[in-house]
Amino acid sequence: MPSRDHQMVLELIRERPALAADLLDCVCKGLVPSTTHARLEPADLSEHKPVSYHADAVVTLGKDRAELAVIVEVQRRRDPQKRLSWPAYVATARARLGCPTVLLVISPKQGVAGWAREPILLGHPGLVLRPLVLGPEEVPVLTDGQAVPVPELAALSAVVHGPGPDGPKVFEALLQCMRTIDADRAQGLMDEVIAVLPRAARDLLEGMMKTATGEYKSEFFRNAVREGRDVGLQEGRQEGRREGRHEGRVDIILAMLSARGVMVPDEARARIQGCADLDQLVEWGRRAATADSIEEVLG
Questions:
Q1: Buried b vs exposed e over 7-32: b needs ≥16 C-beta within 10 Å?
Q2: Which residues does 35 contact at the CB level (< 8 Å), separation at least 6?
Q3: Each residue of 76-130: pLDDT tens digit?
Q4: DSSP states of 164-191 as a string?
Q5: Whose CA, among 1, 86, 176, 206, lies 20 to 30 Å from 192?
Q6: Residue 70: how many CB atoms within 10 A of its CB?
Q7: Beta bridge mates, 176
Q8: What pTM, to 2 d.p., does this model score?
């Protein structure tokens, strides 16, 4: 049963709701708005229509018990509603799991990442939620697949940085990394990467996969082979493998040039596609990674 002094304070506030502002001002000067209108609201704070809060993922870290909870949110666009729900995620997870809780927002877009980093002022003095944000700048540019301890990180690096100027090196590192893990796991990661890459970057990676491995790993190309739309690689046939390598090199060169915005006239395209010298194609591919014009590639 509430004590008398407990009840007295409440009765005073109920009689004059503005007293809450006066008392608050005794504790923290300047917090009360200058144009204060006090209104007594229902004290029952339970939800009559329960609100469901669903984070993208919640992970607890610790050996024998949860020592840290990580709420993971993947954000591709600005959503003002998230700035209201994210604090609730943190507070609810902390109460339920009984351990420190952090919010990690992952965004592949730099502008959205900047928006997500903005502090969320909760109103209570000193109570500010500053989301931890993983944007494109925080994702490492991995160019050495043998040195990548986490294949999933190589996949994320490929998704974020593959469409950029480091695409060829990042994709090569990804393919190197995939060769060090179980085939099923590698195939699943490659399919995930290819599914989200933009067209030019996807074409580049597809070409590198075909050239480097001698077979197609993505579902798209597996279907293409089954349906007979591509006859570049025929298992057990030396000539077929050679044709596949040729097509792969051509695909890489054209995809690189497309990704860099380099115009390829019909005459130059025909010259590249008609070149039977694999060494020459390799050299053109090396130049295409940094070229700003077709002349820089073909010499």
A1: eeeeeebeeeeeebeeeeeeeeeeeb
A2: none
A3: 889 999 999 999 999 988 988 888 888 888 887 889 999 999 999 998 888 999 9
A4: STTHHHHHHHHHHHHTTS-HHHHHHHHH
A5: 86
A6: 17
A7: none
A8: 0.57
| Residue 268, H or E segment | helix 266-274
Long-range (24+ apart) CB contacts under 8 A made by 60-65 are 60/97, 60/99, 62/99, 65/99
Angle between helices 167-178 and 199-213 (to 10 degrees): 50
Cβ atoms within 10 Å of 274's Cβ, excluding its own: 8
What's the rounded Cα separation, in Å, for the pair 173 and 160? 14
Question: Could you give the CA distance from residue 160 to residue 198 in angstroms, rounded to a whole number?
Answer: 11
Query: Residue 104 corresponds to which amino acid?
Result: L
> Strand, helix or coil at 16?
coil
123: region left, alpha or beta (phi > 0 left; psi from -120 to 50 alpha): left
